Amino acid sequence: MKKEAAPHLEIISSQTDKALTVMLAGATGLIGSHCLDYLLAHPKVKKVIAPTRRTLSNTSKKLRNVLVDFDRLDEYEELYHCDAIICCIGTTIRQAGSKAAFKQVDLQYCLDIAELGRTHEAKSFYMVSAMGADPNSLFFYSRVKGELERHLIQLEYDYLSIYRPSLLLGEREEHRFAESVGNKLAGVVNPFLTGGMAAYKAIDAATVAKAMANECTAIGSPSSPHPQVNIYTHNKIVTLAQNPDRILKEN
Fold first, then answer.
1. Is the dihedral of CA 115, 229, 110, 75 positive or negative?
2. Buried b (16+ CB within 10 A) or exposed e, 139-150
3. Assigned domain for 61 exists
4. Count of CB atoms within 10 A of residue 9's CB?
5. How far apart are the first and last CA of the chain?
6. Does a structural domain hold residue 163?
7. Residue 55 sits in which domain range?
8. Is 247 within the bounds of a domain?
9. What are phi and psi of 229, to 5 degrees?
10. I want to staple 143 with a disulfide (CB 3.0 to 4.6 A). Which of 22, 112, 137, 231 is the partner?
C-alpha cells in the first residue's frame, strides 16, 4: 500500500503542546504493556484510557482503566473521548481457538475501535500490524492483517500509522513455541538481514512500543484536510524509538 502525501507539518506541530488523552487498546499484551508504561511516564500525556477485560495493576492517576466486553464496544462511549488511539490488540489462532475467533479479535475488534474513534474525537490512529500484511495473501494471518490495514486507510484518519514488525522479542505471559525458538536465533540471524531483508529482523516489543509512544506524543492531535498514512518496518521503527524527529521530518 502506497504512502500518502504528507499534510502540512505546521498544522500538526501547532497541536503538539496540547496535553493529550490517549486511548490504548491491548494494554495487557506484549507491546501494549510497554506502551502503557511509556505513555503514563510522558509529561505530554494527561490521561490514558485503557479498555481491558481484566483490571490492570498499574495505579497511576493518569490511567483510566475501563473493563469492557469487546463484543459490545459501541456501549462504552467514554473510551472514544480522546485525541489519539494506539491499538496493540492481537492474538494467535491457537490462543483464539479457531480462525473465526482469531479474525474477530485481530480484525473486528481493532476495526470497531477505529470506526468508533473516527466518529468521535480521535484524530490519529496507531496500529500494530505484521510483516507480510496483504489482503490478497495466500496466508490467512497475513490476509487478515492486510484486510484490517485496508479498512483503516479507508476511514481517512487525519494521521494513520501502521507498524509492521517481524518476529517480536520479549517475555509473554503465555508461551509461544515458535517465538521462543525465534528469540534464541534472532541474535545469530539478525546481523545477516541487510538491505531489503532488514524488515524481517526480529525486534524487541519494547522498541515497537517506544516508537509508537514517541510518534503519538510528537504528533499530538493533528488536523489536516489531507489524510496521511505511514507504514513502518524494522529500521524506521527503531529510528522512531531512538530519534523520532528524524522520521517525522521525512514524513
1. negative
2. eebbbbbbbbbe
3. yes
4. 15
5. 16
6. yes
7. 9-242
8. no
9. -120, 125
10. 137
| Own/partner pairs, 195-201, CB within 8 angstroms, 24+ separation | 198/233, 198/234, 198/235, 199/131, 199/164, 199/166, 199/233, 199/234, 199/235, 200/131, 200/166, 200/234, 201/166, 201/234
> Given the C-alpha cell 494506539, which residue does it identify?
86
Residues, the chain, total? 251
> Considering its fold, how many domains does the chain have in total?
1
Q: What are phi and psi of 24, to 5 degrees?
A: -115, 110
In the chain, which ranges are continuous DSSP H helix?
9-13, 30-41, 93-96, 99-103, 110-119, 140-154, 177-189, 205-219, 234-242, 244-250
Q: Which of 44, 62, 76, 141 is catalytic?
A: 141
Q: Is 232 a catalytic residue?
A: no
To the query of whether residue 145 is one of the catalytic residues in this protein, the response is yes
Give me the CATH number covering residue 132. 3.40.50.720
Answer yes or no: is 4 within a domain: no
Cα separation of 169 and 172, whole Å? 9
Q: Which of 103, 145, 210, 236 is catalytic?
A: 145
Return the C-alpha cell found at 227.
489524510
- Provide the residue-wise pLDDT of the chain in tens; the chain has 251 residues: 444 333 333 333 334 567 999 999 999 999 999 999 999 999 999 999 999 999 999 999 999 999 999 999 999 999 999 999 999 999 989 899 999 999 999 999 999 999 999 999 899 999 999 999 999 999 999 999 999 999 999 999 999 999 999 989 876 555 555 555 555 555 545 554 556 666 778 899 999 999 999 999 999 888 766 789 999 999 999 999 998 887 777 76
DSSP 8-class letter at 48: E
